[in-house]
């Protein structure tokens, strides 16, 4: 063996030895950090160095794994996931306490946050989020998103146009099976939010609508597959994650381009004395800032076009997908519990009359109908993990030290199915929301729209839509199963939300 060969061998051995030492030091440091954090963090499972608990989680039914951890470790537990601290909250009082704290109003720093760049309202933080929430609240209330006041009729009429169009479509089916998870129902719900935000109504088979819905559906699926990228993962896994992020980015850019075309159309016809929709409201705000010379302060200095684009995207995703899925679940439960459907129909007939359509003024006088919708929201829990918050600074919660940047996840599905809070939570019982006086009651542990400072901004609109669509459909139709079909499963498929499996129904016109 030559001296040169021996030198090469020694160098190779030295490199292996250095790599082994570096790996050992890394593992030791990772273990040290976990031990140090364990002294002040809530209890929870141990993970593996660098990856934390990530190897024990999957994209499918993550909420069930989290529920299991809550049962094992208690109302507040924690684990690390690829360097991130994750806190699970399964007690409704603790969730409310946490989400009322200013230090827990952030959003997790993940791949999607990198794509949207801090724009919008749903995922923005700090002063931008505070100002946009206040602005949207005022504008949407002025446009009728309220159960009181004369502007409410504008919103009610907007919704009822789509409800009437949908019922007419169902009447034309003449009792033939229809797939509720495709087509007309989604179109009607989309048109409510699109008319409110940008004065656009899509027609059936509109290629713009079909393309947009494809991108939304694909976006939800891709986002559900997204995980933070770690340098310690296999290269193929890192490549897969980055490909997902790239697809989400391209999807987001295409949607943003469509929204920008709407913004430009509005600019060409803008009249500051006639505000038609949310886009106009933003254009007016931009105009005032330009006149006041404060454009550098508007949206905290961010690009106005991108901000309006993201606001439209936020409201579409929040105001369409969740409403659609809730109504789909309502139909699933009506098929499984026809006696509940009959009670709802009898109440509406008694209060509204057989030949009038339910309106918002009837809402307070329909306690069983309200209670049924609440039970649908509780039982389906379409956002089983609520909305993830993040700490903006170190904070003490329930006696534990929570570090800056920790993800705080409310286990909404766990709370809505906790036998210590609900009698027979596995059962579908609207009566649980009605008190001894026959009035509707909402327990503190009922959290379908979240709680705290970042509670769902569109809760009132969602309740309006759910009530008007649900009550009108049951007033007009019996929801039946096609001959020979089996009842749809009551187990959801999980991405970002729980959604019922595809199923067909017969909307049979009622004999009145």
Summarize the structure.
The protein is an alpha+beta fold.
Count of alpha and pi helical runs? 15
Shape: globular
| Main pleated sheet | 4 strands, mixed
Strand order across the biggest sheet? 1-2-7-4
Radius of gyration of CA atoms, rounded to a whole number: 26 Å
| Average residue pLDDT | 87
The amount of beta strand, in percent, is: 5-15%
Keywords: Heme, Iron, Metal-binding, Monooxygenase, Oxidoreductase
Protein name: Cytochrome P450
GO biological process, one term: xenobiotic metabolic process
Cofactor: heme
Q: How would you characterize this protein structure?
A:
With 512 residues, the chain is of the alpha+beta class. The chain has helices spanning 3-38, 62-73, 92-99, 111-116, 126-142, 152-172, 184-198, 207-225, 235-268, 278-292, 304-336, 338-351, 367-380, 412-416, 459-476; strands at residues 76-81, 84-89, 178-179, 389-390, 395-397, 400-402, 407-410, 477-480, 493-494, 498-499, 504-509. The chain has a four-stranded mixed sheet. Strands 3-11-8 form a three-stranded antiparallel sheet. A hairpin with a 2-residue loop joins strand 5 (395-397) and strand 6 (400-402). The model is unreliable at 228-236 (pLDDT under 50). It comes from Acyrthosiphon pisum (Pea aphid). One of its GO terms (cellular component) is cytoplasm. Keywords: Heme, Iron, Metal-binding, Monooxygenase, Oxidoreductase.
């Amino acid at each position: 063996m030559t001296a040169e060969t021996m030198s090469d061998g020694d160098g190779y051995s030295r490199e292996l030895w250095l790599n082994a030492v570096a790996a050992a030091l890394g593992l030791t440091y990772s273990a040290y950090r976990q031990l140090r954090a364990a002294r002040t963090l809530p209890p929870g499972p141990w993970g593996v160095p660098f990856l934390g608990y990530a190897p024990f989680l999957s994209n499918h039914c993550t909420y069930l794994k989290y529920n299991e951890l809550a049962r094992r470790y208690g109302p507040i537990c924690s684990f690390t996931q690829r360097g991130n601290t994750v806190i699970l909250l399964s007690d409704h009082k603790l969730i409310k306490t946490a989400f009322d704290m200013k230090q827990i109003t952030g959003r997790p720093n993940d791949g999607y946050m990198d794509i949207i760049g801090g724009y919008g309202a749903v995922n923005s933080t700090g002063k931008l989020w505070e100002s946009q929430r206040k602005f949207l609240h005022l504008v949407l209330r002025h446009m009728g998103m309220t159960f009181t006041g004369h502007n409410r009729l504008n919103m009610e009429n907007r919704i009822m146009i789509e409800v009437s169009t949908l019922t007419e479509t169902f009447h034309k089916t003449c009792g033939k099976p229809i797939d509720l998870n495709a087509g007309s129902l989604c179109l009607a719900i989309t048109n409510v939010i699109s008319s409110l935000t940008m004065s656009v109504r899509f027609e059936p088979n509109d290629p713009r609508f079909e393309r947009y819905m494809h991108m939304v559906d694909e976006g939800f699926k891709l986002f559900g597959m997204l995980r933070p990228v770690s340098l310690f993962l296999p290269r193929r896994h890192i490549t897969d994650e980055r490909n997902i992020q790239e697809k989400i980015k391209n999807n987001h850019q295409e949607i943003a381009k469509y929204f920008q075309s709407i913004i430009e159309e509005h600019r060409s016809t803008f009249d500051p004395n006639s505000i038609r929709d949310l886009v106009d409201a933003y254009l007016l705000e931009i105009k005032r800032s330009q006149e006041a010379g404060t454009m550098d302060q508007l949206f905290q200095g961010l690009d106005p076009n991108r901000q309006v684009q993201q606001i439209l995207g936020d409201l579409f995703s929040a105001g369409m997908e969740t409403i659609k899925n809730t109504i789909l679940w309502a139909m699933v439960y009506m098929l499984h519990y026809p006696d509940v459907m009959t009670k709802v129909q009898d109440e509406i007939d008694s209060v509204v009359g057989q030949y009038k359509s339910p309106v918002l003024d009837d809402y307070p006088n329909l306690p069983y109908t309200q209670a049924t919708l609440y039970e649908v929201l509780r039982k389906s829990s379409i956002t089983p993990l609520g909305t993830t918050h993040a700490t903006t600074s170190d904070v003490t919660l329930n006696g534990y030290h929570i570090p800056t940047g920790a993800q705080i996840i409310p286990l909404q599905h766990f709370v809505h199915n906790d036998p210590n809070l609900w009698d027979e939570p596995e059962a579908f019982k609207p009566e649980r929301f009605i008190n001894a006086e026959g009035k509707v009651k909402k327990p503190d542990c009922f959290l379908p729209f979240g709680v705290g400072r970042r509670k769902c901004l569109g809760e009132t609109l969602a309740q309006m839509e759910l009530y008007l669509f649900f009550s009108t459909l049951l007033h007009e139709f019996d929801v039946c199963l096609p001959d020979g079909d089996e009842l749809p499963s009551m187990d959801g498929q999980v991405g970002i939300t729980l959604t019922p499996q595809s199923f067909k129904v017969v909307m049979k016109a009622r004999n009145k």
